[in-house]
């Protein structure tokens, strides 16, 4: 399955909140969405904080997909 993807590599932590929220709202018709966070625990935490605030259903990647979060529903 091909996902609509937001790659956060190279994005500064203070930019994550607005970028993730806009991405989810602007692409909600294309669910599921993939957000690539990389291996940064801080980036994962920031993304999950936004997704929780806007009440999204999501799952964190495991194994080979550890660096990604899949947004299923808003």
Structure overview:
There is one protein chain. The protein is an alpha+beta fold. The protein has a single domain, classed as Ribosomal Protein S8, Chain: A, domain 1, CATH 3.30.1370.110. 36% of the residues lie in helices and 24% in strands. Strand 3 and strand 4 form a beta hairpin.
Summarize the helices and strands and which ones pair or pack.
Blueprint: E1 4-7, H1 13-26, E2 33-36, H2 41-53, E3 57-60, E4 68-73
Helix pairs in contact: 1-2
Query: Which strand order do you get reading across the main beta sheet?
Result: 1-2-4-3
Tally of discrete structural domains: 1
What is the gyration radius calculated from CA atoms?
A: 11 Å
Poorly predicted segments: none
Indicate the CATH topology.
Ribosomal Protein S8, Chain: A, domain 1
The CATH class name reads Alpha Beta
Order of helices and strands: EHEHEE
Summarize the main sheet. 4 strands, mixed
Tally of alpha and pi helices: 2
Architecture per CATH nomenclature, i.e. the level-2 architecture: 2-Layer Sandwich
Beta fraction: 15-25%
The percent range for helix content is 25-40%
Global geometry: globular
Helix/strand-derived category reads alpha+beta
Overall residue-averaged pLDDT value: 94
Overall number of strands: 4
């Amino acid at each position: 399955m091909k996902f609509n993807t937001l790659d956060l590599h190279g994005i500064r932590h203070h930019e994550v909140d607005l970028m993730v929220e806009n991405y989810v709202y602007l692409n909600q018709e294309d669910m599921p969405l993939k957000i690539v966070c990389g291996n940064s625990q801080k980036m994962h935490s920031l993304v999950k904080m936004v997704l929780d605030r806007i009440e999204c259903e999501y799952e964190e990647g495991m194994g080979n997909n550890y660096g990604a979060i899949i947004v299923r529903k808003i």
